[in-house]
Design goal:
By secondary structure, the chain is mostly beta strands. It has 3 helices and 15 strands. A hairpin with a 2-residue loop joins strand 10 and strand 11.
């Protein structure tokens, strides 16, 4: 599938210790505090705690030697088009080992509306009548189609083909793990992503042909307030230490 996608024009410092992903490092950053949010693993899913009112970014760094396409969604909405997200839509193209911060909903090739953590009723998805998938960030990673390799002798399998099969099995496993049931019963207003202030953000269009129609890796990160994540058991707080009292 050959499509016109967007390529980022800015770099990004790596944050491997707090990153999620195999083909790319994906992190969520609080832009107001500068903090990279810790990913908590709970029931097979990744979660991060957002601060209500804070602007945030989805940071992606290509960890491969070839270009990657990252089709990215927030709350079930494609961050480039504003449409209900689907894997065959446009995304951002990353050159080898290059990273970039996706700071908001793309409005044009030079402007975005900032991502902000906000109360669920004020989320962009809720205000546009699409509240079903609020609270989730998705990144579908696609390898670029490469020139056909030289023919392999009959009865042999190339190392590249073997590696591709292993990668596809890993992607399938990751997808199954992310489909685990989520906890329920938050104690406070759930968070969504708002349609924040307009900001300058320059990108250009480039052609990209996917190696496969199905994503080589799908990353899902859920988010909510710290208070809710503690109540849901996602964040484990240390138990108070008992100090003996002689009286």
């Amino acid at each position: 599938m050959r499509t016109l996608c967007l390529v980022a024009l800015a770099g990004l410092a790596a944050q491997p210790a707090l990153a999620v992903g195999r083909l790319a490092d994906v992190t969520v950053t609080d832009r107001d505090s500068g903090e990279t949010l810790t990913p908590y693993v709970h029931r097979g899913e990744y979660w991060v705690a957002g601060r209500p009112g804070a602007r945030y970014a989805i940071s992606i760094r290509n960890q491969s030697g070839n270009r990657l396409l990252a089709v990215t969604s927030v709350d079930g909405i494609n961050v480039l088009s504003g449409q209900g997200a689907a894997a065959n839509q446009r995304g951002y193209v990353f050159d080898p080992w290059v990273g970039y911060e996706i700071d908001g909903w793309r409005k044009s090739s030079s402007e975005i509306a900032a991502f902000t953590f906000t109360a669920l009723p004020n989320a962009y998805a809720a205000l546009t009548g699409r509240p079903k998938n609020i609270g989730v960030i998705g990144v579908g990673l696609f390898r670029e189609r490469q020139p056909d390799p030289p023919p392999v002798a009959s009865g042999q399998v190339s190392a590249e083909a073997r590696n591709e099969a292993v990668a596809e099995r890993s992607a399938d496993s990751a997808g199954k793990a992310s489909a685990a049931r989520a906890p329920s019963a938050p104690v406070a207003q759930a968070l969504g992503t708002g349609h924040g202030e307009r900001e300058f953000s320059q990108v250009v269009s480039v052609p990209f042909e996917r190696a496969h129609s199905r994503a080589d890796e799908t990353i899902r990160i859920r988010y909510d307030s710290r208070e809710n994540l503690v109540a849901l058991g996602v964040i484990k707080l240390p138990k108070p230490r008992h100090v003996p009292d002689p009286f």
